[in-house]
Amino acid sequence: MSKQSQGHALHELTATELVEGYRRGDFSPVEATRSVLGHIERWERHLHALYLLRPERALEQARASEDRWRRGAPLGPIDGVPLTLKDNIATEGDPMPLGTAAVEPVAMPADAPPAARVREGGGVLVAKTTMPDYGMLSSGLSSFHALARNPWDRSKTPGGSSSGAGAAAAAGYGPLHVGTDIGGSLRLPAGWCGIFTLKPSLGRIPIDPPYMGRAAGPMTRTVADSALFMQVLSGADARDSMNLPWQDIAWQDADAGPERLKGLRIGLLLEAGCGLAVLPEVRAAVERAARLFERAGAIVQPLQPFMTQGMLDGMDHFWRMRSYLDMKALPPARKASVLPYIQQWGDSAAGMSGEAVFKAFSQFHATRVAAVNACRAFDYVISPTSPVPAFPAELPSPTNDPLRPLEHIGFTVPFNMSEQPAASINCGYTSDGLPIGLQIAGQRFDDLGVLQVSRAFEQIREPQRPWPQPPSEALDHVD
């Protein structure tokens, strides 16, 4: 009996459940896509998670998938599954605003690698998802897109820069979503929206354009769906000059039980060593998770902070200079349309000397070395994803200070620089009902292991609360 026949709408099903349903003939990609589109219609005006929502195009793709399933010839493991791609993942023929009104809307000449893999695999692209200006914020504040909000509490941010993707996954806009991450932009919204994500080893998922620490990754409600999506997204693409050699990884082996944790050496990192202090509720949730690892047979030992404020500040200052130069190249009118917070942040680098920029850049490598050395003694490292839960939606960052903009990424950014895989999975809730993320990091190249450990934890963690539902029309109010 299918979940749909048990009272579950198709938009609530996982990707693995949808594919099994297609295979059995219980329902079709067209029915699933219509269910997702109807759910989006009820939710989206409250969340503002989407860009380029085009129902007819999505249904056209779904009809083509339906025909392939009828012929017994699906293109791949996600054929017919509704999904979204982040604004900054190019799709052929579409403008890519990068979340900012400063970018001229020019049609992209080709699909970026994740988009190409999705199309080749028969995925149904329902929409793109929103992001902040240039992806430079951990919130959904944008000069181009409407303000994105968190489904768990619409007064809060979904995080960023994969803002819309996090909100869309938590709200049930289909089971599969793709975001990007250069300092935490997958894991922070995943943690604040209560979903799962994997920031893979650098180069595991080809991306164009590549950049130091930049990774694309799946954002899903379940570990199994991210593992399924990795089968598609990790396909080779020569356009990524930083990609890893393609490997035939048995992603289906991610479905590990709690016994996978027995004997593992787990480092418990409760302080980042820089930035904001970890709030007591967040620390308590991560400590409870650590005890669950121990009960499953893992050997959990404290890991001392390895990041420093100097490392975080150096990365911050280098990125300021990058943004300063990007905005300096814009015509004055276009620069004026960039969010004031980002303008202030970038302009603060105007007087930096060459020596200061060099010293700032050196902190990327210092962070990499520190992270690798600190993790060497452990199979995996667990920590808070963020020191704080989701903050007010209107704020660009938890501090709301352009001179202290990255104080919340001390747990996430080191694993971009060390190129290690790191996931975020829900491990509890605040007293106000906001999700709390647990980060699980592994050794470089051990993406499958991180998925397995995440799946094992998924089975032993505390009971999860029901996913948020769109407001009742009878009780509706204007956001």
Largest sheet: 11 strands, mixed
Write the H/E string, N to C.
Answer: HHEHEHEHEHEEHEHEHHHHEHEEH
Strand order within the widest sheet? 1-3-2-4-6-5-10-11-9-7-8
Q: How much of the polypeptide forms β-strand, as a percent range?
A: 5-15%
Count of individual helical segments: 14
The proportion of residues forming helix, as a percent range, comes to 25-40%
Q: What structural class results from the helix and strand content?
A: alpha/beta
Terminal CA distance reads 40 Å
List keywords for this structure.
disordered C terminus; 14 helices; globular; alpha/beta; 11-stranded mixed β-sheet; 479 residues; 11 strands
What's this, in brief?
With 479 residues, the chain is of the alpha/beta class. Helices cover 35% and strands 12% of the residues.
Textual characterization of the structure:
Strands 1-3-2-4-6-5-10-11-9-7-8 form an eleven-stranded mixed β-sheet, sandwiched between helices. The longest helix has 22 residues, at 354-375. It has helices spanning 15-24, 29-47, 55-70, 113-120, 163-171, 187-193, 223-233, 280-295, 309-328, 332-336, 340-347, 354-375, 413-417, 447-460, and strands spanning 50-51, 82-86, 124-129, 176-181, 196-199, 215-220, 265-268, 299-302, 380-384, 422-429, 435-442. Strand 7 (265-268), helix 8 (280-295) and strand 8 (299-302) form a beta-alpha-beta unit. It is globular. It is built from 14 helices and eleven strands. The two termini are 40 Å apart. Mean pLDDT is 96; it is low at 474-479. With 479 residues, it is an alpha/beta fold.
